[in-house]
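Figure 6 in text form: structure in, sequence out.
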């Protein structure tokens, strides 16, 4: 049998453009290939493709900037939202003049985010494990878990924050009703996001093949021991990217706690705007949130790409 039977000759099925192009060792030009690499920001077509991508990007950005600059109200918008003087003043703050530092207030957002993230990871895992259990003793807890998830996934986060932030202090309970506003905000974030994250955990647990459970039980492991040492580690590895996406949203939603009166970045920006009647402070707050969320978003993309390469490598071995 000659090489042409395998498509090795020019024009064969494995040649570039042939019906089986991309299935041989060398991927077809312009394809994703079999190395597990996904699409990149700049195409992999060499210098010419990079030059074209760069030029087209500059043209689009230049067109958008030109439209903004020639708009009739451009000067007013630039003064209102992009004033360098007001952006700096809102960033450093001046309590004597009645407004707070947006740069300092962002630290409250960061602290709320970190505290909520830890609590959400733990609480949502408990909910997911309870809902995945088959024990008759835990049946009431499974029912409560279903009700909890349906309730807090259906109610808007802002309403949860208002209910916790204004309702709990009104109860006049010892200690519980006399906490800082940020504590009530974190509590609302945990209650709401745990409902979503618990479903992510459940999806990860269900993604582990049943043969893994059978193999663990055949070795004499109990149900909970198999869950802890066999199922849960594999499930967590599968759900890291979607978890990080949820936490990107969590970082942004800490701004909603400002409705309770907590001086976080968004609330500090609003106070500055209502004091000096310039909204460049909101631009500063937006930039600060971008500096927090973009690195996490890129890290999420990196994990997704790495997981894709790992899966494709396993499929080709």
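Output sequence:
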């Amino acid at each position: 049998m000659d090489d042409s039977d395998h498509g090795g000759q020019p024009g064969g099925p494995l040649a570039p453009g042939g019906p089986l192009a991309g299935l041989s060792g060398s991927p077809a030009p312009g394809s994703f290939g079999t190395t597990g690499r996904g699409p990149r920001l700049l195409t992999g077509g060499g210098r010419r493709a990079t030059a074209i991508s760069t030029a087209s990007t500059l043209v689009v950005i230049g067109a958008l900037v030109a439209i903004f600059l020639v708009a009739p109200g451009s000067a007013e918008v630039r003064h209102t939202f992009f004033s360098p003087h007001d952006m700096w003043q809102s960033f450093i703050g001046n309590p004597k003049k009645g407004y707070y530092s947006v740069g300092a207030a962002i630290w409250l957002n960061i602290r709320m985010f970190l505290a909520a993230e830890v609590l959400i990871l733990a609480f949502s895992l408990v909910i997911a494990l309870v809902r995945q259990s088959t024990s008759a003793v835990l049946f009431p807890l499974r029912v409560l878990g279903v009700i909890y998830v349906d309730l807090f996934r259906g109610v808007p986060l802002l309403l949860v924050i208002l209910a916790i932030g204004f309702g709990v202090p009104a109860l006049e309970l010892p200690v519980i009703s006399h906490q800082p506003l940020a504590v009530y905000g974190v509590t609302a974030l945990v209650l709401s996001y745990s409902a979503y994250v618990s479903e992510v955990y459940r999806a990860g647990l269900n993604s582990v093949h049943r043969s893994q459970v059978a193999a663990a039980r055949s070795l004499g492991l109990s149900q909970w021991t198999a869950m802890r040492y066999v199922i849960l580690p594999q499930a967590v590895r599968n759900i890291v990217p979607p978890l990080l996406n949820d936490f990107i949203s969590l970082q942004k939603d800490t701004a909603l706690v400002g409705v309770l009166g907590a001086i976080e970045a968004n609330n500090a920006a609003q106070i500055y705007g209502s004091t000096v009647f310039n909204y460049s402070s909101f631009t500063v707050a937006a930039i600060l949130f971008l500096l927090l969320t973009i690195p996490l978003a890129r890290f999420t993309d990196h994990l997704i790409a790495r997981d894709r390469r790992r899966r494709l490598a396993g499929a080709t071995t």
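Caption detail: Residues 101-310 form a domain with the MetI-like fold fold (CATH 1.10.3720.10).
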